Amino acid sequence: MNDLPNIDKALFNKPSLEEFQSYAIQNHSPKILLLYGSLRERSFSRLLAEEAERILKAMGCETRFFNPKGLPQVDDAPETHPKVVELRELVQWAEGMVWSSPERHGALTGLMKSQIDWIPLSVGAIRPSQGKTLALLQVSGGSQSFNAVNQMRILGRWMRMITIPNQSSVPKAYLEFDDHNRMKPSANYDRVVDVMEELVKFTLLTRSVSSYLTDRYSERKERG
Predict the structure, then answer these.
(1) Torsion angle of the four alpha carbons 122, 127, 131, 136, in this order, in degrees rounded to the nearest 10
(2) Which residues pair with residue 126 across a beta bridge?
(3) 153 to 41, 119, 180: CA distances (angstroms)
(4) According to the model, what pLDDT value does residue 1 have?
């Protein structure tokens, strides 16, 4: 008697030991894209992302930034708009991402959401964000809050990303950076280091097997 009558067992993905071993460890530096959510001249979400980038580089990562200035609203420009093309190419290049947003009116900013909204779930046979790692940062003007990182965590899951457990929320961000726009030594700074370290670890552990981790029974069934 078939104990799973509604499932085609022939489509189960049960790799052999040899197939597991074929997922060779990639020896290049982790490739991390950083996005931030404010266009202010002294944007603390950008400064926090820049600090995160310094940490990532010290850990041996290759990093790139996307400057959202000039990015149009979703549906207000074609997908061929230069800023949209730039963003999507960077997402495809990356193996992991850092999203850094201010909290505004109890939420992530519209600019941050627009960047995420321009990233498609699929482009032909390519899923730009699926299986890639994600770290979340936020800055607040007042007391510590987790509204923005919690909302971005939902978005990261929706984008089928491996969103790491740790996160950083920096309260009273205007007190955390010096006159040279560097983050001051503090427990908040140490937390950012922790988050970046965890991002690197998760990226190293998962990037070689991303295609295996995101291979779904339902999609294999649909492909026939």
Answers:
(1) -60
(2) 123
(3) 27, 15, 31
(4) 42
DSSP 209: G
Who has greater pLDDT, 46 or 17? 46
Beta strands 96-104; 133-139: pairing state: parallel
Assign 3-state DSSP to the chain and report helix, strand, coil percentages, each to 5: 40, 20, 40
- Reading the block at residue 198, the tokens are 């965890």
**Residue 123 per-residue DSSP state:** B
pTM: 0.88
Residue 162, number of CB atoms within 10 A of its CB: 21
Residues 134-178 have pLDDT tens digits of: 999 999 988 888 999 999 999 999 999 999 999 999 999 999 999
Which CATH number, 1.10.3720.10, 3.30.470.20, 3.40.50.360, 3.30.1440.10, labels domain 29-210? 3.40.50.360
Are the C-beta atoms of 57 and 118 separated by less than 8 Å?
no
